[in-house]
Amino acid sequence: MKHRELVVGLVQMAAARDPAINVEKAAWKIREIAHRGAQVICLPELFRTTYFPRQYDEAAFCLAEPIPGPTTERFSQLAAELGVVLVVPVFERRAPGLYHNTAVVLDADGSIAGVYRKAHIPDDPLFYEKYYFAPGDTGFRSFATRYGPVGVLICWDQWFPEAARAVALHGASIIFYPSAIGWLASEKATEGERQRLAWQTVHRAQAIMNGLYVAAVNRVGREGEGTESVEFWGSSCVFSPEGELLGEAATDAEDLLVVRCGLDAIERARRGWPFLRDRRVDLYEVLLRRWAE
Amino acid sequence: MKHRELVVGLVQMAAARDPAINVEKAAWKIREIAHRGAQVICLPELFRTTYFPRQYDEAAFCLAEPIPGPTTERFSQLAAELGVVLVVPVFERRAPGLYHNTAVVLDADGSIAGVYRKAHIPDDPLFYEKYYFAPGDTGFRSFATRYGPVGVLICWDQWFPEAARAVALHGASIIFYPSAIGWLASEKATEGERQRLAWQTVHRAQAIMNGLYVAAVNRVGREGEGTESVEFWGSSCVFSPEGELLGEAATDAEDLLVVRCGLDAIERARRGWPFLRDRRVDLYEVLLRRWAE
After folding, report:
1. How far apart are the first and last CA of chain B?
2. Which of A113, A179, B22, B231 is most buried, most CB within 10 Å of its CB?
3. pLDDT one-digit tens code per residue, B162-174
4. Do residues B215 and B42 touch, judged by C-beta distance below 8 A?
5. Is B293 contained in some domain?
């Protein structure tokens, strides 16, 4: 059976202090959005915890867990029960002292369809990810699932067109971007709307340039106090292969988005603007260098 | 002397049948925009002629000329006289039977600072460029000019993030995109606004992802009749390294845009969102392939 449509479900959540609460809330929301018809459901980056990379805190490494592990087992059961594909971010403990910012794709029978480890690791004020996460080594993939080929990248990866292109070349129909992006208190008034617009613009452009769907799932809510706080801006969104905004969540509240993605639109977009035909693979070697000179 | 600012001038033009008229009009408009302060001035793709790739016409090859040749000589003199850098598209006759869609960067002393041959050649109804132009072999560069390092890509190149990234890695502060993009009569009502928005979105995204200025210079006006016509949509635009729209021309009229581009904004943008620091050059080899599997 060939599916003509993929129904995407995005769970935009805020995080509580207690991981058990976040896991139960995510499970409950997955149940709700599945009942509304979603087939491939994605949670925000590091949904199980508050955004601990906001601070340097050695104790936070205790939050990590193996794959498979408690979180993948919990959501594997749920995926199988509901017959849905789940994209589940995990703070991965791969070995003692080796941690990754990871997302697991669970197929609709509960098996692990694939693991993606975040390749591009940010490190900016209140986003101290290089302290916690080793750069991913899975490369960029597409994972076969019951509902078609699904790609996953994570948050900061979005700004690197190399990553989206690589996932497209592996045959994905959609790229999910579990994310945790927000405003610093010191910047929101002057820079906030420009930053949020840039974020959506670049998601939209990756969809257009690669002729596939893009679904970004952000967390929401303020974490921390005053100048040490981050206000995650929500705004989870889905763009079509032709760059249309198909759905958008609130900036300041939890939200569920269910978006029907017709798969014919992928080939239609790529016939109209056939970028894959015209790539000059003989001229791109400079992309493998840090700087050209 | 280190310039802190680059003043961009974009000449959005319609084309007459007679190349001599287009050349004189371009020269006149360059004079006007230079007097308004522009330092680096760009003309639209193939500005010297109507958009002949709209049809298969062997006689059109007679419009091509060598580099250096009459057009580069004419505009070299003008560049030197006015003390401005010019980006001048040329239908290039490189050898008998070998033609390119090219742009020449003329430095402010009239010398040739660089030549770029369009790498990505479109071929779609009413845009039969593969018939006329061999794919460019110059690769992607930045050219040193009196007013700083300038990159050039041409029209269809814009949809390939590989090209913009490559120019950025060569150190350009700005990428000019001389263009000839427009609506087919059969599509304008249903697809037109989405297409124009996608075009600007992708320009904006290249500016953001590479932390540099992007200036797109389109032609304007309808060429041809009925279902054989193309209505070039103008909308020439300049985006800052942070994705702000700094200037935009009309969709339906000739226009001149003068935009002051502060060069400090490049490093400011790249410090705020340090993508160049975090590229995973060890993971990008798949980009040198047509398809991953």
Report:
1. 51
2. A179
3. 999 999 999 999 9
4. yes
5. no
pLDDT of residue B199: 98
Q: Kindly give the interhelix angle for A70-82 and A19-35, rounded to the nearest 10 degrees.
A: 20
Chain B closest CA to A26's CA: distance in Å?
Answer: 30
Best A123, A195, A199, A209 member to test B by mutation, with max B CBs in 10 Å, is: A209
CATH number at residue B81: 3.60.110.10
In a domain, A293, yes or no: no
- Please choose, from the candidates A76, A74, A73, A166, the residue with its C-alpha nearest in 3D space to the C-alpha of residue A116: A166
Chain A residues touching residue B186 (CB < 8 angstroms): none
Smallest CA-to-CA distance from A90 within A19, A145, A181, A30 is with A19
Domain that holds residue A261: 5-288
3-class DSSP state of A162: helix
For residue range A145-184, list pLDDT tens digits in order.
999 999 999 999 999 999 999 999 999 999 999 999 999 9
Q: Domain total for chain B?
A: 1
Q: 10 Å Cβ neighbour count for A3? A: 12
> What is the ipTM, given to two decimal places?
0.97
A2 catalytically annotated? no
- Which CA distances in Å does B148 have to B13, B144, B176, B240? 25, 6, 13, 16
Comparing CA positions, the residue from B135, B74, B68 lying closest to residue B99 is B135
Contact criterion met (CB below 8 Å) for B135 and B114:
no
Establish if B121 belongs to a structural domain. yes
Q: Which residue, among A230, A199, A234, has the nearest Cα to A220 in the 3D structure?
A: A234
Q: Is residue A47 part of a domain?
A: yes
Q: How many CB atoms lie within 10 A of CB B62?
A: 9
Nearest CA in chain B to A192: B242
Q: A-chain residues within 8 Å CB-CB of B166?
A: 283-284, 286-287, 292
CA-based nearest distance B225→chain A, Å: 22
Q: Does B190 touch chain A (CB under 8 A)?
A: no
Q: Active site includes A193? A: no
